Amino acid sequence: MDSTLSSVIGLVVAVLLIAGLWQVFTKAGKPGWAAIIPVYNVYVLAKVAGRPGWWVVLYLIPLVNVIVHAIVAMDVARNFGKSKVFGLVGLWLFSVIGFLILGFGGAQYQGERGPVQTQRLAQTH
What we know:
Keywords: Membrane, Transmembrane, Transmembrane helix. This is Signal peptidase I. By secondary structure, this protein is an all-alpha fold. It is built from 7 helices and no strands. It starts with a helix and ends with a helix.
């Protein structure tokens, strides 16, 4: 494949991923522009997932980052009312398509329903 064509395809994929992330962040009440800032976008994604910000450090550890990203993807999907399967297949395996569906589709952010929030709800009832 020609290197110019590869570059164009890479650029298109990057723009689509940024557009999807931007919309997801906006729906979650976070700044959309965070999608274009490296590392900070991972921090914001963790917050959208309901995970602590220090999880960004886990993304720096080889092999651990794969598992952490799968967990974050499932949590983001759940916080938008989607299934864990959508999180794994749509947001983890096929990120570009998944974030476009989540960002531009009808899914609404339902708040951080991660483990910490679930524990708090259980304690109040």
